[in-house]
């Protein structure tokens, strides 16, 4: 079964793309992973919290009401509520900004794994349109899930029954219903990120069009995708437990110099307390970067696993034919470890993108191979400088479609009707 065999292939493919270790490549990839991965903290939560617990709070009696009135006289309740509302709005705006960037980073991440190169600036700008469509789709799915989750509870309240008056059996059914809604939401979000987004990138489609392209593949390989889901959930849970146990010790060690810095600044008086703010921000960013670095190979592994399953169940949707062939032919990494050639190059012939792959001629996917700028230039992962080749996207035939021989077919343009929703 492909879903089982691809577990080991994904591990080898991940090793090939992440080694030899290049600090610049890893740091940039960690930034991308920070946005596309949950960092082992779990998936999206149901909005609204525990509705049942809120509705089951006991009603305050007469004495409780008097105490509440006295408290309102002593405490500026209106000001506190206003401050909480402002914080809520700020938090919502920050979350929306993060979610928007994360949607674009999904395509940056997939493009990086496909080309084994990372040009953060170019990939980000080239996928703004895809990111907007994915962001809006995710918001729509989240809102739909929220309506489905709280709809029955609101219906009970409107009819005057209420959850507190519902029987144990009714509440149990509602609980099972909520779990089913959450599982459906999780599957849609995972399939969108792992399978639909790659199809959008490969065939230049919108979200709904890419879902329509994926659906026949899923329905004709139901067992493969069911096994994939089960294995991913089990592995994610097990890895999260083990990795976070180790990360906790790493964070403690990382915080030692910052704690010493806080103690020393405390002796400086007012100026010391002012300097604690930037030091605290630096400590927070350092922890996030450390956690993202740890999760970089894990996130890369799971995405490669999904891409391998997608290509095995439908070879027309194979985004990584070179990596797949390298692993299954036993040739190992495509890049010599001594750094004499760049990632994606072989000793002779043309690579999967139709560029000359001999020697150190890389022909960067985005036509930008100077490693002097660590955030704007592609990092091959071998830490060596690369020669500057001509652009590999200057074909006169419009958008290129890969044929199964590993070269590019310039004779056919994509149908623009597949774009959009």
Automatic annotation (TrEMBL):
Listed Pfam families: DUF7544
**Protein's UniProt keywords contain Transmembrane helix:** yes
Instruction: Give TM regions.
Output: 25-46, 80-110, 131-151, 171-188, 226-246, 251-269, 275-295
Q: Compositionally biased, Acidic residues: which spans?
A: 364-398
UniProt keyword DNA-binding present:
no
Keywords attached to this Swiss-Prot or TrEMBL record, sorted alphabetically, are: Membrane, Transmembrane, Transmembrane helix
Ranges for the region named Disordered are 323-421
Q: What is this protein called?
A: Uncharacterized protein
| Organism of origin | Natronorubrum daqingense
Q: What is the lineage of its organism?
A: Archaea, Methanobacteriati, Methanobacteriota, Stenosarchaea group, Halobacteria
């Amino acid at each position: 079964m492909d879903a089982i065999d691809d577990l080991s292939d994904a591990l080898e493919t991940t090793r090939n793309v992440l080694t030899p270790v290049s600090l610049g490549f890893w740091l940039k990839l960690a930034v991308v992973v920070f946005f596309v991965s949950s960092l082992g903290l779990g998936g999206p939560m149901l909005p609204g919290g525990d509705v049942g617990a809120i509705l089951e709070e006991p009603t305050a009696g007469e004495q409780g009401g008097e105490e509440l009135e006295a408290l309102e006289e002593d405490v500026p309740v209106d000001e506190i509520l206003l401050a909480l509302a402002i914080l809520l709005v700020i938090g919502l705006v920050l979350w929306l900004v993060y979610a928007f960037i994360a949607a674009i980073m999904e395509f940056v991440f997939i493009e990086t794994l496909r080309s084994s190169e990372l040009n953060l600036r170019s990939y980000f700008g080239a996928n703004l349109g895809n990111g907007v469509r994915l962001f809006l789709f995710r918001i729509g799915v989240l809102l739909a899930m929220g309506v489905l989750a709280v709809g029955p509870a609101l219906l009970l309240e409107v009819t005057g029954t209420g959850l507190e008056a519902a029987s144990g059996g009714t509440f149990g059914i509602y609980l099972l219903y909520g779990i089913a809604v959450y599982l459906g939401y999780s599957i849609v979000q995972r399939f969108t990120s792992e399978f639909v987004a790659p199809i959008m990138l490969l065939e230049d489609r919108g979200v709904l069009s890419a879902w329509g392209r994926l659906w026949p593949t899923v329905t004709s390989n139901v067992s493969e995708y069911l096994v994939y889901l089960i294995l991913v959930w089990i592995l994610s849970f097990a890895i999260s437990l083990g990795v976070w146990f180790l990360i906790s010790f790493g964070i403690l060690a990382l915080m030692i110099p910052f704690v010493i810095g806080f103690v020393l600044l405390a002796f400086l008086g007012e100026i010391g307390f002012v300097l604690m703010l930037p030091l605290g921000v630096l400590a927070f960013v350092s922890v996030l970067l450390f956690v993202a670095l740890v999760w970089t190979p894990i996130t890369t592994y799971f995405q490669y696993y999904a891409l391998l399953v997608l290509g095995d169940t439908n070879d027309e949707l194979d985004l990584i034919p070179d990596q797949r062939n390298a692993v299954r032919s036993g040739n190992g990494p495509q890049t010599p470890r001594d750094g004499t050639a760049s990632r994606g190059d072989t000793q002779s012939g043309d690579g999967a993108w139709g560029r000359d792959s001999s020697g150190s001629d890389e022909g960067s996917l985005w036509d930008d191979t100077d490693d002097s700028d660590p955030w704007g230039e592609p990092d091959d992962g071998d830490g060596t400088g690369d020669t500057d080749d001509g652009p590999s996207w200057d074909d006169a035939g419009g958008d290129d479609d890969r044929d199964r021989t590993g070269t590019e077919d310039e004779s056919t343009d994509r149908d623009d009707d597949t774009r959009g929703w």
